[in-house]
Amino acid sequence: NGTYTSVFPLHDCRYWKRARDPACENERYTLYRQWARFTCFYKEQPLNLIRKYYGEKIGIYFAWLGFYTEMLFFAAIVGLICFLYGAFTYHDNVSSQEICNDAGNITMCPLCDKKCSFWMLNTTCESSWHSHLFDNEATVFFAIFMGIWVTLFLEFWKRRQARLEYEWDLVDFEEEQQQLQLRPEYETKCTRRKLNRITQEQEPYLPLTSKYARYCLSGATVLFWLMLIIACIIGVIVYRLAVYAAFASLMKGTKELRLVGSFMTPQIATSVTASCINFVIIMILNFMYERVAIWVTDMEIPRTHMEYENRLTIKMFMFQFVNYYSSCFYVAFFKGKFVGYPGNYTYMFGKFRNEECDTGGCLIELTTQLVIVMVGKQVWGNIQEALVPWLWNWWGSRKARGHPESLYSRWEQDHDLQCFGQLGLFYEYLEMVIQFGFITLFVASFPLAPLLALFNNILEIRVDAWKFTTQFRRPVAAKAHSIGAWQEILNGVAIMSVVTNAFIVSFTSDMIPRLVYYYAYHPGSEPSMNGYINNSLSVFEISRLPPQNMPDADENPEWFNNTTITTCRYRDYRYPPGHEKEYQHSMQFWHILAAKLAFIIIMEHVVFLVKFFVAWLIPDVPADVKARVKRERYLTQEYLQNYELDRLKKTLQGNGCHDTDAFITSTERHEVLSEVL
After folding, report:
1. What separation, in Å, do the N-terminal and C-terminal C-alpha atoms of the chain show?
2. What band does 664 get if pLDDT is binned at 50, 70 and 90?
3. Which residues contact 178 (CB under 8 A, 6 or more apart)?
C-alpha cells in the first residue's frame, strides 16, 4: 500500500569527506580515496576492506576481476610480441611482394554476378600487407600459448579462491544452508505443501505437471529467441551478399573512390559495414532478451535464490554466446568455404551468390569483426555503467543537493542513490565472461585482444569501484565462497577455445597452405615461397563462363580485352581447362586438407595434454592453507574430546566414583570421542 518504498543498509558517511562523528570508521571515504578513483589504478585492491563493507559475495567478485586482470598482463605481453613479429617481418612477406609487383598482374574472375568486373590481383596489395600483421608464423605459437594460459589462469584462480576462503572464514560455509532458504515468490505462488525431509517442516511445493509445463514453455521461448538471433545473423549475411556488388561498382565509379579502393577492397568495406550493423543488432537484441530471460525464469518459479541465479545464468549466457559470437563463427568457419568455382557457383536461397575471401584469406575480416564487436561492447558497457547511474542520481537529487547535511539526512541521501538489485553482480560477471570468450575463442586472429582487454579491465575495476562507492546504495551483505556457476562456464569456454583456435589456424588462416607449398610444392631444390601466389590460383576459361556470371558490358575496366585475355584466375586448387579432370580438385588440395586435419588433431592433443597435466600438477588448494585447515580441525576435535572427557569425569565423581582416571580406559576414550564426533 506504499507504506514502505525500499529497505537498504546505510553508508557510514559521504564518500568525499569524513563524517563529523569521531566514532564513525569512515570506511566509505577510505574506499573512495584508496580504491574508487582512477588515479589508484596501479594500487592493489583493499579486498579485506571491500569484504568488510560490502560482504564476501562482492569481495570475491573484485578478487576474481583483479586476478583476471593480473593474468591478462602476461597474455597481453606475449600477444604484443607476436604482433611486433608480424610488423618487423612486414617487408619480408614474399606473398605480398608477389601480389604487389609484376607477378600480381593477374586477371581475376569476377567476385559477384553482373555488377562485378574482372579485376587485377595487385589491387589487393595493401590488404595483403595488412593481413600479414596477424596471419604469420607467430599465430600458431600464440594460439598454443593461449590454450595453456587459460588453464594456468583457471588453476591459479582456484588456489587464490581457496586462500580467500580460508582467510575470510568460509571453509565450513555450506551453500546447502542457502538452498534451504525459499524465495518469497516461491512461497507466495505455491499453495500446496509437503514435508521437507531435511527440516521436518511443512513447506510449499510446485506439482510436477505444473513444473514440466513451465519448463516446456520456457524452453520453447528460449529456442524461439535463439532462432531469432540466428535469423538476424542470416539477414546480415544476406546484406553482405547483396551489398558487395554495390561496393564493387561504387569504388570504381569515381576517381576519389578508386583512390580509396587501393586501401580498402570491397570485401573489407562490406565486412566493416556489416560488422557495424551486426553490433547494433546485437545491442538491440541484448536489451530485449534480458527482460525475456528474467520473465521466463520468473515463470519457472525457482525454489531458492541460488537456483534462480543459476537458471538465469545459463539462459543469459546461451543467448549472449549466440548473440555476440555467431557473426565471428560465420566469418571464421563458413565464409569462403562453400563458394564453388566459375560456372558452378553456390547460391544462398538460390539468389545470392556466396561471398569469397580475400586472396590472403578471411583472417583479416575476422580480425575486423572481432575488433568492432569487442571494442564496441567494452566502450558501450563502460559508458552505460558510469554515465547512466550518474545521470539518474543527478536528476533524482537535484532538489536536495543545496540543503545542508543537517536537513538532508543519511537515509535520504542513500535513498536518492541507485538501487543495487539482486542481479547487479550477475551482469558484472556476464560482461567479463563474454570478454573472456572474445580473448580465448578467436584470439588466433587478433593477438592484441588480450591487450585491449587488459586496458578495459584496468578501467573496469575503477569504474565498478566508483559506481559501488558513489552511485549505488549499500547492498545487503551476502556470503559466497566461490564465483558459482561462472566457474563451470569458464571451464567450458576454455576447452572450446582450443578447438576454435585450431580450426582458425587451419581453415581461416593461410598458414597451412603456405607450409605445404614451402615443404612439398616449392620450385627448385631449396624450400622457398617464390611462386606461391601463382600456385594457389586456379585457371578458368572465360569463354565458358555462363551468361549469368558474366559482368555487364559497361562494368569491365578499360584494360580488359576479351580477345587477348582468355583466362581468369580464382582462389582454389583445381585442375586447369584441357586436363582430363578439369575443374576437379587437384591432389594438392587433398594434401592441404590432410595437413589441416592433421594440424587440428596434433594441436588439440598437445594442448589438451599440457592442459590436463598442468591441472593435475597444480593443486587446487595451497599446501600451507590445507595444513592450516587440518590444524584447526585437529584442535577443534581435541577441544571437543577434552570437553566431553571433563564432563564424563564430573558425572562419574557425582555418582561416587573417585578413581575416574582408572575408570576411563583408552578404549573408552576412543568410544567417547567417536560418539562426540
Report:
1. 52
2. low
3. 304, 305, 306
Which of 181, 164, 180 has its CA nearest to residue 50? 164
Please answer whether residues 204 and 190 qualify as being in contact, where contact means their C-beta atoms are separated by less than 8 angstroms. Answer: yes
Closest CA relative to residue 490, chosen from 305, 606, 317: 317
* Dist CA 109 CA 541 (whole Å): 10
CA distance 32 to 26: 10
Q: Which residues pair with 538 in a beta bridge?
A: 570
Amino acid letter for position 422 = Q
| Calpha distance 509→360 (Å, rounded) | 8
> What confidence tens digit (pLDDT) does each residue in 467-488 have?
999 999 999 888 888 888 899 9
User: Quick check: pTM over 0.85?
Assistant: yes
Q: CB–CB of 370/446 below 8 Å?
A: yes
* Helical residues (DSSP H) of 424-510, grouped into ranges: 424-441, 449-466, 486-503
CB 29 within 8 A of CB 15: yes
Helices (H), 504-586: 511-516, 532-536
- 601 CB burial (10 A radius; 0-12, 13-18, 19+): exposed
615-654 as b/e: b if 16+ CB within 10 A:
beeeeebbeebeeebeeeeeeeeeeebeebbeebeeeeee
Say whether pLDDT at 64 is over 60.
yes
Rounded mean pLDDT, 110-127: 84
DSSP H helical ranges for 301-417: 305-333, 363-396, 410-415
* pLDDT given at position 672: 47
- Grid cell for residue 109: 574472375
Q: Which residues of 362-386 are buried (b: 16+ CB within 10 A; e: fewer)?
A: bbbbbbbbbbbbbebbbeebbeebb
What does the alpha-carbon distance between residue 389 and residue 421 come to, in Å, rounded to a whole number? Answer: 13
Q: Which residues contact 213 (CB under 8 A, 6 or more apart)?
A: none
Look at residue 243 and tell me whether its pLDDT is greater than 90: no
Sign of CA dihedral 441, 447, 448, 451: positive
In angstroms, the CA 15 to CA 472 distance is 12
Per-residue model confidence (pLDDT) at position 676: 45
Decide: residue 609, CB within 10 A, 0-12 exposed, 13-18 middle, 19+ buried. exposed
Q: Is 402 helix (H, G, I), strand (E, B) or coil?
A: coil
pLDDT tens string 551-577? 887 778 888 887 888 899 998 999 999
Q: Which residues contact 221 (CB under 8 A, 6 or more apart)?
A: 292, 296
d(CA 578, CA 256): 42
